[in-house]
Amino acid sequence: MKHAVFMALIVSTGLAVSAVSAEAKGGHGTRASFAELDANNDGALTPDEMKAHHAGRFEATDTDGDGLLSVEELMIRTSKDAEARVQAMIARFDANKDGMLSRDELPAPGAKHEKRANRFFEKADADGNGALSQEEFDTARANLKDRAKGPGGKPGKSAD
């Protein structure tokens, strides 16, 4: 169970980071639904609606309005995207509807990540009960953000 919950956290965080990175580079980012793109609700998408949606996402991420996306602004966006993805993953796989994922509720993860996943989960599971509470999850996520900043608050891995 420890491995399954950790993998959900890592996969969703990685997907969110990839989505924001792709969008910052002019790629696709997080996919919008048809309804989100169809601004005038006429049942048809125009290139102008798609361009407006993309510009709106940039503006929403650019919280200080300077026309530039800082590390901090992208991290805020990433954490919101990651949280939404984790919530969706739990909703999708939580067969017994207890708000947590057991190993049996998820497809088996790749073996090469198991050692790292177990080590992380052991650190994140502060009370040792085999499940992450909201507080443990939030703390682990904050720690991942801190690690992403790297030495001196710059992007990159921090020293462990």
Please tell me about this protein's structure.
The radius of gyration is 18 Å and the shape is extended. The protein is 57% helix and 0% strand. The chain has 160 residues and is an all-alpha fold. It has one domain. It is built from six helices and no strands.
Task: Quote the beta fraction.
Answer: under 5%
Radius of gyration: 18 Å
- Structural domain count: 1
Number of helices, where a helix is a run of at least 4 consecutive DSSP H or I residues: 6
Secondary-structure element order, N to C: HHHHHH
Q: What structural class should be given to the helix and strand makeup? A: mainly alpha
- Major sheet: none
Topology:
Blueprint: H1 2-24, H2 34-37, H3 47-61, H4 71-93, H5 114-124, H6 134-149
Question: What brief labels describe this structure?
Answer:
extended; 160 residues; mainly alpha
What is shown here, in short?
This protein has 160 residues and is mostly helical. Helix content is 57%, strand content 0%.
